[in-house]
């Protein structure tokens, strides 16, 4: 058979040509979307000429003019149909009809400004809340960290085997130095592993002494994180060794501030906490391990610490290219098992490999997910409201839709028209939502930053990802809102609808059922949200009402770290504090001042073991634990702690007098139940024995949410260990903030080289202590109020629509002698029924879901009955109120008017 | 009236191209009449289908159009073959010849199948 370059079996025809030709045609057709009018004119001219030529030909062969025209038109084959095909070929009909739908939808929405405004506002609130929360989620949980190839950066998080102490150790995820070295030596999945800790230094010589923020790091940490020194070099491996470790990397800021940006800074020395460090390099301003932490001013080499029990290092690693987290995790299962075998029980339980990004936002993750679900609920309710609005309007537009259907519009086309309208609503709502989110985001970021006492380094913004999210959510929202009404088109029968168009008492039964269902669902969603909010609010209230144990008002806490090189002996410390306290007490407005190692509400979870004279030590697996707190004379008086028994410290409890201690009530209860501890002796090193001089009230040292732990106070004047971190506590008679400058001046007049780490008012510390639960309660409360408002608008809309529908029926009832109360009962009954269905379903949902927020609750069960009953009552009451308004309208129906009304 | 054959699907385009090749630039009505003449009035061109086909060919770049003046001084849209169109005519004509030759062999009486 004849071989050709084409398939000889196929029937030859004018091929569409190559793909290129087809594409060319597409482009021209797309452009055809825009010059429709001139194309139409050309086509008409062409047709006109065609007809004329044909008619002339026909006349020439002897037809009558009428016949000539008829034949010509006949031959052309229906001029309108030809034009239509021609038009379709000239552009893209599917796109054209979309434009048409859009134009029609926009016109329709403009024609009903009330409906449109309410729908858009509803969606804008829902979408705005989602956009705002998603901006935070995106920045904190999804966006990569601003480090080179940050996806491979992992945090190596040691986990404890169930602690053998009575108080379970909090999981800080810190490792000891030997652990870090073992991991570094044994791991094959990591390209490099580094360790660091935060450390502060005093820097003197400027206007006044300063406390600066530093990091002490293993060699190579900066390049591991993806930073190169902008000047000089990173630390060398051997610079961790004593004798060589007085080298420092400056941050760009410190370099400019302390050395004026001198390019010859390498080799110069800087005095940090009294010791000289030689500058080996300058790090870029962005250097740090987290965008949420204060960047370090100086970086020094990590000093080895052979103690395996001393966990103080944060360990990070960079995975080798191609290595996965699960490989690393598997490897570390083996490594830690082996280390456990080698070093016994004391070695930490295991190591979890967590992406650094996730490790940095561990605290906030749960809250964010809860908030994201909450705003999701709000948006669903908003969708339901808008769906209901559209349904109501579709009912009102029934005549128009019927006309379109009878004129030949397919149901699909009408459904598409409705969906186009709701999509347009969604997009408009999305735009509004963006504006709302943009306005609220700054406040939200401030709330987050202050609640978590951190910075977000401007990472939380409305960026491309957020915009894409909002666009998708908007379209989805529009689609969901329009779906039920659009589906309703398919279920309705044109004839039926036409008949319904005439009057009928039971009109639109089916639609009523759908609307009722939607409202009940809204109620259920709102109830779930309200329950979540109710639980968090209740737990916040319980927390905020906890007695901190001190009088926080008019109190300042000034923190120092006393440099051991300058405060070698007790006398230097007491001279420093005595000098300050005496001068302060001479000032007007200062009531008293004292010293304390722990500022109430801010202490970490460490505790100390101790011995009681005459009592055998407990079994090794049952430690006897309490926290030692180093305080000054007049501690109880200044802080407002009640003295329950015995006495507080005085100035005479000095280094030369007998060592004394006071204990708190919790301590007395736990270790001397039914006994009098006063006069008993305790020790924490079995060398110095402190005899108990008094019992004082409990203080919630670890925060409002922690129960008071046993606590032993000793005077800083008798502190055998010269604890370096001490705070000055000052009580003033009026607002304490104006005293800050004076106090600083007094401190530097006593010691002009002592930097102040931080000055805070106790009220602020108290408020910080409840900041996270407050944020949770505030945001969930806000969203649930929004949900409640939307849901009540929903129920109001449905009841009020139903009253309008039944106005005839109500009129008949009234005419037949129904009383006002009967009418109220009728309408409110409908509202109540909807609310109760919603409440029942919502309670079931809440029971299933509130477990998930159990970790955010304090002293409130996830199924707290009071809260559940309370929110159920609240929702029912609001639903009744929302139904009452239309009910009142129903009672005012004049039977005569209602009967005439049709 | 004798029953006329409809234009087969897809062949109209080739006829248009061939007509323009042999006649030079023509307006739509002229093309339609020419096709009918050539077919010996055996073929009924539904004039209405011609215009979308012309538009399609133009969009694909096989023909080009231009407004000009007709014989009796009227404004008319003239279509002419482009270079791509010329090639296309040759290619398609060859394919048709091949196809008709094959079919002819099937249909001719007494001819053996090869």
Neighbour order of strands in the largest sheet of chain B: 2-5-4
User: What are the segments of chain B in which pLDDT stays under 50 over at least 5 consecutive residues?
Assistant: none
Helical content of chain B, roughly? 40-55%
Return the structural class of chain A. alpha+beta
Nearest-integer average pLDDT of chain A = 86
Tell me about this structure.
The complex is a heterodimer of chains A (902) and B (114). With 902 residues, chain A is an alpha+beta fold. Chain A folds into four domains: 56 residues; 190 residues, no CATH class; 310 residues, no CATH class; 189 residues, no CATH class. In chain A, 52% of the residues lie in helices and 14% in strands. Chain A contains 27 helices and 22 strands. In chain A, strands 1, 2, 3, 4, 5, 6, 7, 8, 9 and 10 form a ten-stranded mixed β-sheet that branches. In chain A, a hairpin with a 2-residue loop joins strand 6 and strand 7. The N terminus of chain A is likely disordered. Chain B is α+β, with helices and mostly antiparallel strands and 114 residues long. In chain B, 54% of the residues lie in helices and 18% in strands. Chain B is built from four helices and five strands. Chain B has a three-stranded antiparallel β-sheet. Chain B has a two-stranded parallel ribbon with strand order 1-3. Chain B is globular and about 55 Å long. The mean pLDDT of chain B is 80. At the A-B interface, helix 1, helix 2 and helix 4 of A face helix 1, helix 2, helix 3, strand 5 and helix 4 of B.
């Amino acid at each position: 058979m004849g071989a050709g370059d084409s398939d000889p079996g196929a029937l030859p025809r004018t091929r569409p040509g190559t793909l290129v030709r087809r594409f060319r045609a597409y482009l021209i057709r797309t452009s055809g979307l825009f010059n429709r009018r001139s194309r139409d004119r050309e086509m008409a001219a062409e047709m006109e000429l065609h007809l004329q030529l044909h008619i002339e030909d026909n006349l020439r062969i002897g037809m009558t003019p009428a016949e000539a025209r008829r034949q010509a038109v006949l031959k052309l084959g229906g001029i309108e149909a030809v034009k239509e095909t021609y038009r379709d070929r000239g552009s893209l009909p599917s796109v054209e009809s979309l434009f048409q739908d859009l134009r029609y939808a926009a016109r329709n929405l403009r024609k009903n400004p009330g409906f449109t405004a309410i729908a858009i506002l509803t969606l804008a609130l829902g979408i705005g809340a989602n956009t705002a929360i998603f901006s935070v989620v995106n920045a904190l949980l999804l966006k990569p960290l601003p480090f080179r190839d940050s996806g491979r950066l992992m945090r190596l998080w040691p986990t404890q085997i169930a602690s053998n102490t009575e108080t379970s150790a909090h999981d800080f995820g810190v490792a000891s130095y030997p652990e870090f070295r073992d991991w570094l030596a044994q791991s094959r999945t990591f390209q490099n592993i580094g360790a660091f800790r935060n450390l502060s230094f005093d820097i003197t010589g400027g206007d006044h002494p300063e406390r600066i923020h530093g990091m002490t790091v293993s060699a190579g940490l900066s390049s591991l994180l993806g930073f190169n020194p902008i000047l000089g070099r990173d630390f060398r491996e051997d610079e961790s060794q004593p004798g060589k470790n007085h080298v420092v990397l400056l941050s760009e800021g410190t370099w400019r501030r302390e050395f004026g940006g001198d390019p010859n800074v390498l080799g110069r020395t800087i005095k940090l906490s009294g010791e000289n460090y030689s500058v080996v390099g300058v790090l870029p301003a962005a250097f740090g391990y987290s965008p949420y932490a204060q960047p370090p001013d100086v970086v020094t080499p990590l000093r080895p610490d052979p103690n395996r029990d001393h966990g103080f290092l944060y360990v990070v690693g960079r995975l080798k290219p191609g290595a996965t987290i699960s490989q690393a995790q598997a490897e570390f299962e083996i490594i830690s098992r082996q280390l456990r075998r080698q070093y016994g029980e004391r070695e930490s339980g295991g190591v979890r490999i967590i992406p650094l990004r996730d490790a940095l936002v561990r605290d906030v993750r749960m809250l964010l997910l809860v908030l994201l679900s909450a705003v999701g609920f709000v948006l669903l309710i908003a969708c339901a409201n808008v769906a209901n609005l559209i349904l109501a309007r579709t009912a009102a537009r029934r005549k128009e839709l019927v006309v379109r259907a009878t004129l030949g519009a397919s149901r699909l086309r009408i459904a598409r028209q409705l969906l186009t309208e709701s999509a347009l609503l969604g997009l408009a709502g999305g735009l509004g939502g963006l504006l709302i989110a943009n306005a609220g985001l700054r406040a939200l970021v401030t709330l987050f930053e202050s609640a978590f006492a951190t910075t977000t380094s401007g990472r939380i913004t409305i960026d491309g990802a957020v915009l894409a999210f909002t666009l998708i959510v908007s379209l989805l929202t529009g689609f969901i809102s329009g779906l039920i009404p659009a589906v309703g088109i398919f279920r309705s029968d044109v004839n039926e609808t036409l008949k319904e168009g005439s009057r009928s008492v039971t009109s639109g039964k089916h639609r009523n059922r759908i609307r009722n269902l939607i409202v009940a669902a809204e109620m259920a969603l709102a109830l779930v949200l309200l329950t979540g909010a109710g639980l968090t609010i209740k737990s916040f209230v319980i927390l905020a009402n906890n007695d901190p144990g001190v009088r926080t008002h008019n109190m300042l806490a000034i923190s120092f770290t006393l440099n051991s090189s300058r405060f070698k002996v007790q006398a230097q410390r007491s001279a420093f504090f005595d000098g300050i306290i005496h001068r302060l007490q001479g000032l007007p407005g200062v009531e008293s001042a004292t010293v304390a190692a722990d500022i109430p509400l801010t202490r970490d979870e460490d505790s100390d073991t101790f011995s009681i004279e005459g009592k055998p030590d407990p079994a090794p697996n049952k430690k006897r634990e309490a926290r030692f707190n180093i305080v000054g004379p007049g501690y109880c008086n200044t802080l407002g702690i009640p003295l329950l028994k015995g006495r507080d410290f005085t100035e005479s409890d000095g280094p030369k007098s007998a060592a004394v201690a006071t204990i708190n009530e919790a301590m007395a209860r736990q270790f001397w139940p039914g006994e009098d501890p006063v006069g008993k002796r305790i020790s924490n090193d079995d060398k110095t024995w402190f005899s108990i001089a008094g019992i004082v009230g409990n203080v919630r040292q670890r925060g409002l949410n922690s129960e008071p732990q046993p606590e032993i106070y000793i005077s800083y004047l008798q502190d055998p260990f010269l604890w370096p971190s001490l705070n000055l506590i000052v009580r003033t008679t009026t607002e304490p903030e104006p005293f800050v400058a004076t106090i600083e001046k007094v401190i530097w007049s006593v010691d002009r080289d002592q930097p102040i780490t931080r000055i805070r008012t106790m009220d602020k510390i108290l408020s910080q202590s409840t900041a996270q639960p407050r944020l949770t309660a505030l945001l969930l409360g806000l969203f649930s109020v929004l949900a409640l408002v939307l849901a009540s608008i929903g129920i109001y809309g449905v009841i009020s629509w139903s009253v309008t529908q039944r106005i005839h029926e109500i009129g008949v009832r009234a005419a037949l002698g129904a009383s006002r109360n009967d009418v109220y009962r009728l309408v409110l009954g409908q509202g109540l029924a909807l609310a109760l269905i919603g409440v029942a379903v919502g309670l079931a949902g809440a029971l299933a879901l509130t477990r998930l927020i159990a970790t955010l609750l304090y002293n409130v069960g996830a199924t707290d009955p009071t809260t559940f009953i309370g929110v159920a009552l609240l929702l029912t009451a609001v639903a009744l109120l929302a139904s009452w308004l239309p009910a009142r309208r129903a009672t005012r129906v004049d039977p005569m008017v209602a009967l005439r009304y049709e | 009236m004798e029953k006329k054959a409809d234009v087969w699907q897809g062949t109209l385009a080739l006829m248009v191209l061939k007509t323009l090749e042999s006649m030079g630039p023509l307006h739509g009505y002229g093309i339609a009449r020419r096709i009918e003449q050539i077919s010996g009035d055996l073929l009924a061109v539904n004039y209405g289908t011609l215009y979308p086909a012309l538009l399609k060919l133009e969009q694909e770049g096989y023909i080009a159009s231009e407004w000009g003046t007709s014989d009796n001084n009227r404004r008319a849209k003239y279509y002419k073959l482009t270079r791509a169109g010329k090639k296309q005519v040759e290619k398609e004509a060859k394919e048709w010849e091949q196809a008709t030759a094959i079919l002819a062999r099937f249909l001719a009486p007494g001819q053996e199948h090869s």
